[in-house]
Amino acid sequence: MTVNPVKKQTNDTCDTFCYDEELVTRVKPQVERVTGVEQIFKALSDKTRVKIVYALTLEEELCVCDVSNIIGSTTATASHHLRQLRKMNLAKHRKEGKLVFYSLADEHVRQLVSIALTHAEEEVVS
Description:
By secondary structure, the protein is α+β, with helices and mostly antiparallel strands. Helices cover about 55% and strands about 15% of the residues.
């Protein structure tokens, strides 16, 4: 373990700089697995897209027109966000005549939103 004394600047940092070289060597390469995960959180960082994804957790699939009414937007706005979700592999679509229906890409997306919602509701209570 390497220890270098450093002046404490805030209450939430270490009083001294030290690190466990073995731990860092073991964990650092594994952290690279998160590559691409930021795109999921970026997609879900937009309130409109989170509303859409949450609506898609409540129903198996929704027409673009229904999505626009659910989120209180124009069809063009809903379509834009749905396309973004599709590009980010969070949603998929199918055409039926002139209608386009969207659904979640897989169960993992449903779980992410469910866990985030549960966490957010717990934070409000705390």
